[in-house]
TrEMBL record:
<dbReference type="Pfam" id="PF00135">
    <property type="entry name" value="COesterase"/>
</dbReference>
<feature type="domain" description="Carboxylesterase type B">
    <location>
        <begin position="49"/>
        <end position="496"/>
    </location>
</feature>
<dbReference type="InterPro" id="IPR029058">
    <property type="entry name" value="AB_hydrolase_fold"/>
</dbReference>
<keyword id="KW-0325">Glycoprotein</keyword>
<dbReference type="InterPro" id="IPR002018">
    <property type="entry name" value="CarbesteraseB"/>
</dbReference>
<protein>
    <recommendedName>
        <fullName>Carboxylesterase type B domain-containing protein</fullName>
    </recommendedName>
</protein>
<dbReference type="InterPro" id="IPR050309">
    <property type="entry name" value="Type-B_Carboxylest/Lipase"/>
</dbReference>
Amino acid sequence: MSLVDFKTSRSKALHGRWHESQEYLQRQVGFLACNNDFFSKYYYACDADVSEDCLRLNIYTKDLPSESNPNVKKPVIVFIHPGGFYSLSGQSKNFAGPHYFMDRSIVLVTFNYRLGSLGFLSTGTKEAPGNLGLKDQVLLLKWLRLHISRFGGDPSSITLLGYGAGGFSITLHLVSPMSRNLFHKAIIMSGSATGQWDFPNHQMHLAKRQAHLLQCPTGNLTDIMKCLMQKHHLEFANTLPYMFEFGRQNPLMLWKPVVEKDFGQERFLVEHPVRTYQNGEFMKIPIIIGMTKDEFVGPALSILENETILDTFEHNFHKIAPICFLYDANNNSKSLNISDELWKFYFKSKPIELNDLAHLYSDALTGFATHRFVNLVARYTKIYYYQFSYPGQRSYIYFPDNEPYGVVHHDDLMYLFVIPAVSRIFTEDDDELHMATILTKMFTAFAYKGDPNKPSDEKLRDIRWRPFSYKRQYYLDIGDNLVMRGGLNLQRYELWKRLFPLNWRRLN
């Protein structure tokens, strides 16, 4: 097969990339990096880590259809990588080493899509209506529907698995008219679009900030777009650190998907997604959703370790809190009241402690949105809720000494994918291999039949994961033991429900 070229608004082409070597598929897969010589023998040569020509997919399987076995038809898991819509990738050397899933009978797909200004620039005009990165994802799903059977995948059994911005993306695909019927199950990890933030029609302020950083005009939109179109993609990448508003990386969700105005284009989002969920107008498919126990310790730690930033945070909380915790930044009475309530609830005494600030970040960025999602969706379809609390030997945050600080954002990913920067591959000598086995088996069972329970499997026979319901708010605590519990962080989320209430009647 040859490269498949997909035309886009700015890129000359987006190249589908796949594996064609039966010999390779009989080898152990996963430890190959994009710039590795062995890797390039079997794939078309790929660009450096930063490229605008980035809609590239990797397909991993142990069995390709052949003359002797032409009817290979396995469930497909499609991984949408994390990174806040501006960083990371689906490369095996980053967040998607496929070893553990290749011990299961599935086809795994990982891919890249346009990020940052190149993927999410939105001016509210026909020149840049927005959501290009999400439309890249839709194009990938359409390609899989047409071609995945040639790699032994079942196009009628596609499960989206997304983390962080990837999970956020899935909760938008569930309501997008462009994504309808392109997938059949969803696993949403540490990210949801149903939080307290707004979904604007544009982010013109980011377009102007990007233009200023690239020494483009910032007044006339035509001049802005003409200048930006002439800039090299590395210029966009190199200015990324200067796009944020406070500290090292706040707001963590800088580029937002937007509700597109109608300029005759196919629109990814046509209304605020929470409204769509309230009306029950989303894809009713089986869902797993959850988060880690400690989530966003990293951004909290970056504030507390810098005296200047901490002092600014404390003395200007009413102005900075809306930036960090993603609510209306207008300095009106409502915004001031929300900031006061958050301060009183999370910081009952000074000085600010890491655990309290981490809870505030976690609830603002992940926890409340996930809580709201399960309560909106459980009335319509089966949804399995979890908290990941397994304390492995490796973590993204080691603090204060050389020991993991709890179970933080991304820590659970290392039991699904090999992430070389964080952990080597687990072996029989590692206790963590047991968790990698449990997670991949549960997710594979879910990919097969929409249910993570599998009593016939000796590793899963003692697990009874009950679906969430509004009355019985079950969640599976995935720790040293797997235990069904109820009412995850309810006291904390009740505050957010009161500060950001929803109208629960049907909206038309």
